[in-house]
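Protein 1 of 2
SEQ + STRUCT:
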Amino acid sequence: MTRPHKGNDMTTITTQTPAAQSRSLPSQAAPLEVLPLSATEWRVRTTDLPEADGRSVLGVVQRLGDTYEVMQIGLPLFRYYFASLDGAVEYLGRTR
């Protein structure tokens, strides 16, 4: 993962596509946009689709004490837990 670029109220993080998934995605994955929804919640989306396209939303991260819960969007809906926001965002970037 590269360093986040901060601007306005969002953070963009660039992640590399895992080799196992590179068949269906370009070799360089689009940056992720991390938009704060509140002091403890963030929406994570890929920038390779328009913001108005609901398919661009990969998941939502919520801080619960010292843990970050990831709600991955999809069927079925999954929840995962991480020790940091960076870890949670990196996971969502790997799963797209």
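Protein 2 of 2
SEQ + STRUCT:
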Amino acid sequence: MNVPTYTKQKFTDQDGELLPSVQQFFDVFFTQAQENLSNDGMVIPALSTADINRICSTANSNAKPSGTLMYDNQTNQLKICILGVAKVIPTL
């Protein structure tokens, strides 16, 4: 899910209407939330094996923390980053 970053700025115009940049933020935020979170469950990001390994690797300065879930769309496996390594979550 790509949650937009909100920057501190003026929120409304003199009439109390949302500024276009603020409206855009909310539009993107709510679209992402509606597409990825629902009463039916959460959509885990689907990525390639190479991307998952890169994202989890501690050699990557933007590595995701332990506990990050991703779905490997090449091996059809759910994976979790643990201490810089992508581990397969076994099926039950």
